[in-house]
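Please predict the structure of the following assembly.
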Amino acid sequence: MDILEKNILEKVADIHEVPEGAYNIRSNGQLDSRNTTANIDIVTKEDKQGIDIIIKPGTKNESVHIPVILSRSGLKDMVYNDFYIGEDADVTIVAGCGIHNCGVDTSEHDGIHTFYIKKGAKVKYIEKHYGEGDGEGKKILNPTTVIYIDDGGYMEMDTVQIKGVDSTIRNTKAVLGDNATLIINEKLMTHGVQTAETNFEVDMDGKGSNTNVVSRSVARDKSKQVLNLKINGNNECSGHSECDSIIMDAASVTAIPQLVANNIDAALIHEAAIGKIAGEQLIKLMTLGLTEKEAEEQIVNGFLK
Amino acid sequence: MLELQDICYQVNDDSDDKEILKNVSTTIDGHLVVVTGPNGGGKSTLAKIIAGIIKPTSGRIIFDGEDITELSITDRARKGISFAFQQPVRFKGLTVIDMIRLAAGKDITVGEACNYLSEVGLCAKDYINREINASLSGGEVKRIEIAMVIARGTKFSIFDEPEAGIDLWSFQNLIQVFEKMYNKIQGSILIISHQERILNIADNIIVIADGRIVNEGSKDEVMPQLMVDKIACPTLLEKIK
């Protein structure tokens, strides 16, 4: 792996060298390296591109890193990764994709991640997307996440896309069983003429299931964002969604929260807000000696932290 | 030393020119100065003019011999002017330690931040990582606002009604904050207040009413007159009885 690729790896997976525990590093459409542990197996799919990640029941405090790097201009990569999390396991999964494109052709990575979280299992899933390179070629990332959580299972998903991705359609779909919990935190920033569409749909099928979907975004320059947050309450359950956006320059943000209650005991709440940076926030930071530009950066960074 | 020379500020309200400040001139030098007077008299406007948030319609502001009338908020802050807002601003995502670090202008340790917070009666452990958002009470954000000015430690600090919303934390502590600060910075502290106990610690008092300085001088000169003015309203006096 060269310096450039290592740099991307650090951006998307916060790892400098070889990660601890199980990992699978995919670089320019090929397997770069892999490690499995006694409890976590990684198997290449035979029928299509992608891997199966199999975590044994009861596995505790282990992690899996599966970063993807695209540094060759013009590469289109499409993978299917399936995660099987055994009963009562408690693991952290770090995925992420970084594109470096200094060529003229479009680089694209479409990842479809499906999670099967068994009874009582707990997953922390961290996903980062990042693009760089000053070429004309576009950097496109379309992540799809499908989540099935069984009885009493728990998943927390932190998904971040802060920079450099020209176009993205981010689909997340989840089905929750009895007493299952899903927490999603999305952080999104678009700039230039980027476009981002993010679609969340959570089906709370199980009794006592609950979800909290929070999306914070900043749209700068002439970028466009469309945020769809849909929660379906199909049983006695509770759901909350929130999308909060800062709009800057000549950007455009559309927030479409949607709640569907199909059961009298479904308690659903949504909150949505779009607004520019408050003038008084800028003034306050300027009275501390920051320039207007520095103040703006602090406010945006804090908001997306 | 801060000198205000013939400061006027006009706004256009419903095509009617309204004078908020009229020919305000004074010099503030090495003192704890309290600006008082009736609500709507122009006190907060004057504070904002000093900090650069509002540009005066006419007049000059001289700070340590330099004309700062045309300088931005940022430049004035860097020259040593601090301003604690009457209504502190809230930020989603920025934490108490973030703001204190920005105020101090350097990457201070948690221990140092703890020093500033304990000055205003807050336990750093409970607050350091709290976001300055709607979850904090009015009194809490007010105290954090004061801690930020302490962290800056500049030679000229303005506090706009610091006592408002300060609940359980006693007045005595607030007064200690000002006295300690004064000893440390050896500069000027300008406090806008209606509170007699704050007026009592002033070296000088400036009374602003209807956009003008109607009285100014040492505490001993101005305080007795303020009391006389208060008695001037018999109806109010009747009600208080």
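The interface with chain A takes residues 51, 53, 72-74, 77-78, 81-83, 85, 88-89, 91-95, 98, 102-103, 105, 148, 152 of chain B (CB under 8 Å). The mean pLDDT of chain B is 89.
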